[in-house]
Amino acid sequence: MKLIFISCITILALLNANLNKNIYTQTNPLQESIARGSDIYLDFCINCHMANGEGVDATFPPLAKSDYLMQERAKSIKAIKFGIEGKLTVNGKTYNSNMVPLGLSDDEVADVMNYITNSWGNKNNKMITEAEVAKLKK
Amino acid sequence: MKHIHSIVILLLVTLSACAQQTDSAVKAETPPHLNYTTETVVPDINNPWGMALLPDGSMLITEKSGKLILFKDGIKTSITGLPDVYVRGQGGLLDIALHPNFAVNGWIYFTYASSKGEGDGGHTALSRAKIKNNTLIDLQLLYKASPNTKKGQHWGSRIAFDNDGYIYFSIGERGARDVNPQDINRDGGKIYRLHDNGSIPKDNPFVNVANAKKAIYSYGHRNPQGMFKHPITGTIWVNEHGPKGGDEINIIKKGANYGWPVISYGVNYSGTSFTEITEKEGMEQPLFYWVPSIAPCGMTYVTSNKYPDWKNNILVGSLKFQYLERLILKNDVVVKREKLFENIGRVRNVIEATDGYIYIAVEGKGILKIISKK
C-alpha cells in the first residue's frame, strides 16, 4: 500500500514537473525577453523602484500602473538608456530626482523595458526590440 | 467552517512569508531650529561621488561617469590620463582621497569600477597617481578585485587612512550575496587594508591563511559606502547599505566578521526574509542599524569649531530620503537622530575638509558647503 502511494506521488510529481517545463520551454521572444529583464530589474532597479514597482513616495516614481511609463515609450527607453534628471510627473505626482545612466547595453534596456511594461498590472503587447533602443539618441 | 479554516491557513502562510522587522532604536526627527544652511560651491555635476580639498583650496571631485574634475578659482577642469572606468549599474569612478602626507608626496588615491583582468564585466579597483599639468602621472594600480562580473550592484567604495599610514577601502559583495561576503578566499563584501604603496601589511589578519585574499581586513559586509577615521580613537568607522532595512554603522576590527548575510536586520526587497537571525556567536553586532533603510552614503565625524551645535556628531548622507542625517552618540550608542536639509536631493557624500568646512555632494546638483546662517 505504502509503495503504491509513493509511486502515485512520484508519478504526480513527474507529471507536474513536465507540465511546468512545457510552460517555460515555449519559445516566445517576448516571454524570454521579460524573463531576462526580470534578472536585470533585480540587479539594477529594485533598490529604488522596489519589488512591486511601487517606487518610494515622493522620491522615486512608481513603475506599476505608471501613466508615464505606459504612454511615453520613447522617453522611458531613453531614461533607462541615458539616465534622467529633473522634474517628472507620474500619475499626477511630481518627482524631482536623478537617475544616473545605468551602463546597460541596448538589448538589456529592451529586456528590462519588456519586463516593467508587462508587470504589476502593466500590459504591453508591442515588444521593445534592441533595434528600437539602438535608434533612440540622447 | 471549512472555508474559515482555509482562510486562516492562507492568512498564516501569507503572514509568515513576510518577515517582521524591528525599527531603529532611535527615530530621525526634524530639528525645530537649524543654525546652518547650504550654499552651492561647485554647480552642475550629475553624480558627484568622491571629493578631496587640496591644500591650495581647490577641490578634486570624482564624477561617477568617469570624470575627475579639478575645481579651482571657480573653473572646472577635467583631469586627463585616468585608467579606463567601467560604468555599469552602481559602478563607475568612485571615491578619492589624498595621502595624509600629500603636501610632500602628492599622492592621490581613487577607487573605480574596472574591467581589467579576465572575464566579462568588472570589479572594484584602487589606484594612485599624482597630478601634473592637469594630467595623472605615475599611475599605479594597487588593487584589483576579481573575478569580473556583469552585475551592476555593490562595488563599495570608500577610502580612509588611519594614523599609522595604512589605507583602508571597501568593496561591496557585487550582487553575490551567498557567494562572496563570507568567503575570505574571494573578493567582495570586505574592508581591505594595504600599505600606502599597495603592499600587503605583514600583520593583516589572513596573511597566513592559504588561498585567502591577503588584503582583507574584515569581512561579512554588504555594500559599505561611508568611512572615516575616528579623530579621537583612530579607529575606522564604516556604514553600509542593507537590503530593505538593515543599513549599519560598524567600527572595523581586524579579522572580524560583520555577518552579512548570515545575520541581518534587513529583509529582501520583496519583504520576504533570507535569514531568521540578527545575531550569532563570532559575528559582530552593528553599532547602529537603520530600519527603515535611509540608503547611507558618505560619513564624517564633526570636529570643526565652525559647527559648535554638531561637534563630535556623525553626519551621514541619505540617498533614499534625500537629507543629511546627524547622529548624536553617547559612549558609542546613538541617542538622537536628526534630518538636516530635508528634500535637498540624493546626498552621495559628506566630508569635513581640512579647511574646517563640511561639504556635501548631491546628485544632480554638485558640491554644497554648509555655512552658518547670517
Radius of gyration of chain B: 21 Å
Mean pLDDT of chain A: 86
The radius of gyration of chain A is 19 Å
Oligomer: heterodimer
End-to-end separation of chain B: 71 Å
Q: How do the strands of the widest beta sheet of chain B line up side by side?
A: 1-22-21-20-19
**Which CATH class of the domain at 34-293 in chain B applies here?**
Mainly Beta
Total number of strands of chain A: 2
Estimate the strand proportion of chain B: 35-45%
The global form of chain A is globular
Protein name (chain A): Cytochrome c domain-containing protein
Organism (chain A): Postechiella marina
Keywords (chain A): Heme, Iron, Metal-binding
Pfam families (chain A): Cytochrom_C
List the helices and strands and how they pair.
The complex is a heterodimer of chains A (138) and B (374).
Chain A: H1 2-25, H2 29-49, H3 67-71, H4 73-82, E1 84-90, E2 93-99, H5 106-116, H6 130-135
Antiparallel strand pairs in A: 1-2
Helix pairs in contact in A: 2-5, 4-5
Chain B: H1 2-17, E1 28-29, E2 36-43, E3 48-53, E4 59-63, E5 67-72, E6 75-79, E7 93-98, H2 102-105, E8 108-114, E9 123-132, E10 135-144, E11 159-161, E12 167-171, E13 190-194, E14 216-219, E15 223-229, E16 236-241, E17 247-251, E18 288-290, E19 296-301, E20 314-318, E21 323-330, E22 333-340, E23 347-352, E24 358-362, E25 366-372
Give keywords.
heterodimer; A: 138 residues; mainly alpha; 6 helices; B: 374 residues; mainly beta; Neuraminidase; 5-stranded mixed β-sheet; 4-stranded antiparallel β-sheet; 2 helices; 25 strands; 40% strand
Polypeptide structure, described:
Chain A: This is Cytochrome c domain-containing protein. Chain A: Pfam families: Cytochrom_C (PF00034). Chain A: InterPro entries: Cyt_c-like_dom, Cyt_c-like_dom_sf, Cytochrome_c-type_DH. Chain A: Keywords: Heme, Iron, Metal-binding. The complex is a heterodimer of chains A (138) and B (374). Chain A has helices spanning 2-25, 29-49, 67-71, 73-82, 106-116, 130-135; strands at residues 84-90, 93-99. By secondary structure, chain A is mainly alpha-helical. Chain B has a domain at 34-293: TolB, C-terminal domain (Neuraminidase), CATH 2.120.10.30. Chain B has helices at residues 2-17, 102-105; strands spanning 28-29, 36-43, 48-53, 59-63, 67-72, 75-79, 93-98, 108-114, 123-132, 135-144, 159-161, 167-171, 190-194, 216-219, 223-229, 236-241, 247-251, 288-290, 296-301, 314-318, 323-330, 333-340, 347-352, 358-362, 366-372. In chain B, a hairpin with a 2-residue loop joins strand 21 (323-330) and strand 22. The interface between A and B is medium-sized, with 20 and 28 residues.
